[in-house]
Amino acid sequence: MRILLATDGSASAGLAVDLVAGIPWPEGSTVRVVSVIATGAGPYGGPWLAVAVLQAESLARELRQTAENDVEEARSRLARPGLAVLTEVIQGRPATAIVNAAQAFDADVLVVGSRGHGTIGSMLLGSVSAEVIDHATVPVLVARGRTMNRVILAWDGSRCARAAGDLICAWPIFAASCVRVVSAADVEPPWWTGFPTESSPRLLPVYADAANAARREFDELTREMTARLTSAGLTAEADRRDGDAATELLAAASAWKADLIVMGTRGRTGLTRLVLGSVARNVVHHAPCSVLITRGPAGQQ
Questions:
Q1: Hey, which residues does 3 pair with through a beta bridge?
Q2: Which of the 8 DSSP states describes residue 9?
Q3: What separation in angstroms does the CA of 206 have from each of 103, 177, 213?
């Protein structure tokens, strides 16, 4: 496999390095570690612009040395037999440079840190990581932990979700993982019905029938995917829930103490931009664990 790992020397980037170091990549895999020196006004702007301009050459050397130290430290932590580790310091707009590097490297997966801060902030993305996820055309792994033993597959039967399921079946790094297939049937009454709860005595019979049909459909979908994973030699179990998909995925991850959520998202084209669907965005921003996002073809559901 070919892995593009972005680092900036931060604590969250260090967590990404640790995660990549602990994954049982197939023999002959290659990790390319990149660090980006931001170009333009970023490193030199602000209230100290005049001083920065005068010392631009010195600052540029310091930035490059720091970046080289970051990738070298990552290389030393990743080095092991059977895994080639390459390093590169590149210049550019960070998110754009990282996405372009992954494409040029023909990466199978792009790994970034979450850049969160603090008890609540640790569940939120930094701006660079968020933009990388929006624009990347390869699967993106957002690291928030050091292991991938307990894996949740977000499942709704769509082609995008199937792409995520295919990835789990195909990638040997999941061979020893326990996979929980989580799907959520949203059976809450629509706001326009005027019924506050499903148990309301005035609930329309047609809605009750539709809700039960949705439960049966998601039960069957979840059983089918669990059986497929089991047939592929993985340890898998089903967890069908009622409610909003993002809310239930986050709740399942927290309750089960998951290490990773794997989910697909539709690729929406807008000029040169690919934008996550709302469920994927909510999960990747607020998950208490690592998240692996893979895209289906543009416009697919």
A1: 31, 109
A2: S
A3: 50, 41, 11
Could you read off the pLDDT of 17-36 as tens digits, one per residue? 999 999 999 999 999 999 99
Longest CA–CA span in the chain (Å) reads: 76
Residue 289: helix, strand or coil by DSSP?
A: coil
Task: For residue 203, give both structure tokens.
Answer: 């609930």
How far is residue 233's CA from residue 231's CA, in Å, rounded to a whole number? 5
List the one residue out of 105, 110, 32, 43 whose CA is nearest residue 71.
32
* Pair 240, 152: CB distance under 8 Å: no
What are the backbone angles phi and psi of residue 289, rounded to the nearest 5°? -145, 180
Report phi then psi at 160, rounded to 5: -65, -45
Q: Are 114 and 126 in contact (CB under 8 A)?
A: yes
The position carrying tokens 């840190």 is 113
Using DSSP's 3-state secondary structure scheme, residue 216 falls into helix
Q: How far is 67 from 37, CA to CA, in rounded Å?
A: 7
Helix ranges (H only) for the chain are 11-22, 49-54, 56-78, 94-105, 118-121, 127-135, 159-170, 205-231, 245-256, 278-286
Give the Cα separation of 151 and 18 in Å (integer): 18
Distance of CA 264 to the CA centre of its chain: 9
Q: Assign 172 to helix, strand or coil.
A: helix
What is the 3 state secondary structure string of 222-255? HHHHHHHHHHCCCEEEEEEEECCHHHHHHHHHHH
Instruction: Give the tens place of pLDDT for each residue, 174-229.
Output: 999 999 999 988 766 554 555 555 555 555 565 566 667 777 888 899 999 999 99
Considering the entire predicted model, what is its pTM?
Answer: 0.84
